[in-house]
UniProtKB/TrEMBL annotation:
Coiled coil: none annotated. The keyword rRNA-binding does not apply. Its main location: cytoplasm. Belongs to the anaerobic coproporphyrinogen-III oxidase family. HemW subfamily. InterPro entries: Coproporphyrinogen-III_oxidase, Elp3/MiaA/NifB-like_rSAM, HemN_C, HemW-like, rSAM, rSAM_sf. One of its GO terms (cellular component) is cytoplasm. One of its GO terms (molecular function) is metal ion binding. Probably acts as a heme chaperone, transferring heme to an unknown acceptor. Binds one molecule of heme per monomer, possibly covalently. Binds 1 [4Fe-4S] cluster. The cluster is coordinated with 3 cysteines and an exchangeable S-adenosyl-L-methionine. This is Heme chaperone HemW. It comes from Kytococcus schroeteri.
Length: 410
């Protein structure tokens, strides 16, 4: 997880600058609900999540009281977002992520969406996603989710190969992925599967097996991430001790290209570096709003938010979150983005999209790099450049960071 800056202190009542509220009006608005619980901690993961044993009897921090906390934070969000006298923004997308949201069960996930609906107007065709562990998904679960208003399920598949799953500490039975996806499809939920490549010990053939297994399920959407070995994780320690080999950049590049070949061959188109969809509607609209600089309120421990150029983030521990909510805002700190930060984000996120980055968004310092990046085969030439959009070639997708630095004149 990227390290957040220290930021400025956040006001106790959570209020936002008037300019941020007015910048929010007319833009897209989303809600992210963070579920900070997992049954076990996977060795590679540094997300803000806690096992139930770790939490012990932490007051107010349990699964059982999560929805109450969400309701309290949403009350605060409505107060803050209507402080200018306007109506609460219409919610275009909701994403329940974790952690392991499916640990809550369908009833609590339904209740959480209910508390959103009581406070905000939903866009007529809103997208509502929850992440799920395949072991916790059956038809009763997906039918209840669909009835509650969910439209999309994101299944953490990661790999179809037992030794790879074991290295990742994934405890789910790979056969349950098939059951989970079928259950979601029979409830008319759109389905996404998450895969990870580059796990130590994973061969190219293993990775092919995983991508082919995912494709056999005909999901609407596939995310394929290169494994990052995050400092402070058990996997990082095992790699540092030499117990496991560090994945090489060449291996990751070969796996990215193989995934892109297999996915494209099966009719999926990339629309962001690590994301492919079978149709335009199959894209994750929620993530697209993040990448487009949309506005969102992140509810829950450690969740972060962006409203009209102000970024703020909550205290991480579920107990601290619950305690702060009892008397005000759970935000730990915030920062008002500078014009330079806005430009950097726009370049960094925009260049990862298939639609590309409008040339106008490139700062003066990076404009002269464009011709060289096209000549080096990292950016498409005509017709993209003629349309004043900078689009990564496939080689460019493998070297997206280098392209970003070039465009920022670094
Ligand atoms: C944090 S998880 C939450 C969903 C669910 N708990 C799960 O694990 O499937 C969301 C996704 O992030 C990705 N992820 C987590 N840690 C990662 C890492 N170190 N490197 C690459 N991807 C990672 C995984 O693909 C995972 O499905
Ligand atoms: S289940 Fe997901 S969120 Fe939980 S520890 Fe594993 S990867 Fe992280």
């Amino acid at each position: 997880m990227p390290q957040l800056p220290d930021g400025d202190p956040a006001p106790h009542d959570g209020r936002l600058p008037a300019a941020s509220l007015s910048a929010m009006r007319g833009g897209t608005f989303s809600l992210y609900l963070h579920v900070p619980y997992c049954s076990v901690r996977c060795g590679y993961c540094d997300f803000n999540t806690y096992t139930l044993t770790e939490l012990g009897d932490a007051t107010g921090a349990s699964l059982a009281t999560w929805v109450d906390g969400v309701a309290a934070e949403l009350d605060l969000a409505v107060d803050v977002l209507t402080a200018d006298g306007g109506a609460p923004p219409v919610v275009d997308t909701v994403f329940v992520g974790g952690g392991t949201p499916s640990l809550l069960g369908a009833d609590d996930l339904g209740r959480a969406l209910g508390v959103v609906r009581q406070r905000f107007e939903a866009a007529p065709d809103w997208e509502v996603t929850t992440e799920a562990n395949p072991d916790q998904v059956d038809e009763a679960f997906t039918t209840a989710l669909a009835r509650a208003g969910y439209t999309r399920l994101s299944v953490g598949m990661q790999s179809a190969v037992p030794h790879v799953l074991a290295t990742l500490d994934r405890t789910h039975d790979p056969r349950n992925v098939e059951r989970a996806v079928a259950a979601a499809q029979s409830a008319d939920l759109a389905v996404s599967v998450d895969l990870i490549h580059g796990t130590p010990g994973e061969s190219l053939a293993d990775w092919r097996t995983s991508v082919e297994a995912a494709l056999a399920l005909r999901p609407d959407h596939v995310s394929a991430y290169a494994l990052t070995i995050e400092e402070g994780t058990a996997l990082h320690r095992r790699v540092a001790r030499g117990e496991l080999p560090r994945p090489s950049e060449d291996d990751q590049a070969d796996k990215y290209e193989l995934a892109d070949d297999l996915l494209t061959g099966a009719g999926y188109a990339w629309y962001e570096l690590s994301n492919w969809a079978r149709t335009e509607r199959g894209r994750c609209r929620h993530n697209e709003h993040y990448w487009d600089g949309g506005h969102w309120w992140g509810v829950g421990p450690g969740a972060h938010s962006h409203v009209g150029g102000t970024r703020f983030w909550n205290v991480k521990h579920p107990r601290a979150w619950a305690q702060r909510l009892a008397s005000g805002s759970p935000a730990e700190a915030r920062e008002v983005l500078t014009p330079e930060q806005v430009t950097e984000e726009r370049v960094m996120l925009g260049i990862r999209r298939r639609e590309g980055l409008p040339v106008e968004d490139v700062p003066d310092a990076g404009r002269q790099a464009v011709a060289g990046l096209v000549a080096a085969g990292l950016l498409e030439g005509v017709p993209a450049v003629r349309d004043r959009r900078l689009v990564l070639t496939r080689r460019g997708r493998l070297l997206a960071d280098r392209v970003t630095w070039g465009l920022l004149g670094l």
